[in-house]
Automatic annotation (TrEMBL):
Pfam families: LAGLIDADG_3. One of its GO terms (biological process) is intein-mediated protein splicing. Residues 100-242 form the DOD-type homing endonuclease domain. Gene3D superfamilies: Homing endonucleases. This is DOD-type homing endonuclease domain-containing protein. It comes from Candidatus Iainarchaeum sp. It comes from the Archaea. One of its GO terms (molecular function) is endonuclease activity.
């Protein structure tokens, strides 16, 4: 887990959550300090809120004391460098950028008024993906260190950069603001199989799902509110040899023989998909959301 994220939840709330953990666990402050691997006096800095506790330490404390992790994952966290004014790297279109654009098409947004680029996912099941995949994409592709904020069960990876907004909107043709019925797969990506697979990977990692169809079968699903974009996704999958079907707001791959092909060709980066698929391979059952969360923590 990223070790430069800090809890930032308002006056009195950091102390309150630490006292709640202490009371429910029955531990004293010395024992809690040992779990956190800090000196006892640091605990009182945390309680006075003269120092913010590192998020990974708080999660570790929650695991060790059997505290409700869902409650911790809904806390607000921050990382430095909110407003960055340095020049960005402007990469040529490659698989890394194509995957990033796919992720943006899934759960990303550009807000023109404050030059913010962000990708928002679930803090419960996508935390690792957002921090270790999306966050690293921002750094590797554009040379920018992102900020991470968690709130109301979601984690957002964001950058404030006018240069990045211009690059994505002008060179990559990504829509600023409301994207409903305006999202599309760029033609240059559609014409290149490697770029297309990378794009579909980013899209699946953010707006896709691998779930149970029947007791011993699974289904790959892409979700979108934009009909034209869904049609593009369907045709893109068909061009790669998949038997894709469209229904409502989703494109599905039902053919059980093609599930292996999908995971080998698209190669999802989000561990929530890869763990579910691995369990399915071993047991022939796609785990439920609850079963996945349990497997991921272990």
């Amino acid at each position: 887990m990223e070790k430069t994220l800090f809890v930032d939840i308002g006056s009195g709330k950091q102390a309150s959550i630490l006292r709640e953990i202490k009371n429910k666990s029955g531990l004293n402050w010395n024992e809690i300090a040992k779990i956190l691997k800090v000196k006892r006096r640091m605990i009182f800095h945390y309680l006075r809120e003269t120092s913010k506790i590192r998020f990974h330490k708080l999660i570790f404390l929650g695991i060790e004391t059997d505290f409700d992790l869902k409650k911790l994952y809904t806390l607000n966290i921050v990382k430095s460098n909110y407003f960055q004014k340095k020049e960005i790297s402007q990469p040529e279109l490659n698989e890394g950028l194509a995957e990033f654009l796919g992720a943006m098409a899934g759960d990303g947004n550009i807000y023109g008024k404050n030059n913010r680029v962000s990708i928002t996912c679930s803090a419960i099941v996508d935390y690792d993906y957002v921090v270790n995949v999306i966050g690293k994409k921002f750094e590797k592709l554009f040379g920018l260190e992102p900020t991470f904020v968690t709130k109301n069960g979601a984690i957002r990876c964001l950058i404030y950069s006018k240069e990045l907004v211009l690059f994505l909107s002008e060179k990559c043709k990504f829509v600023i603001g409301n994207r409903k019925n305006k999202t599309f797969i760029p033609k240059v990506i559609l014409k290149n199989e490697k770029l297309l697979c990378a794009y579909l990977r980013g899209l699946f990692d953010t707006d896709g799902s691998f779930h149970r169809k029947r007791e011993n079968s699974g289904v790959v699903e892409y979700i979108s509110c934009s009909p034209n974009f869904l049609n593009q996704i369907k045709e893109a999958l068909i061009s790669l040899g998949f038997k894709a079907s469209l229904s409502g707001k989703s494109v599905y791959i039902y053919d059980q023989k093609q599930l292996d092909t999908f995971f080998k060709l698209i190669k999802p980066s989000n561990i929530k998909h890869t763990i579910k698929y691995q369990i399915f391979k071993e047991t022939r059952k796609v785990p439920t959301h609850k079963e996945y969360v349990k497997a991921a923590i272990v």
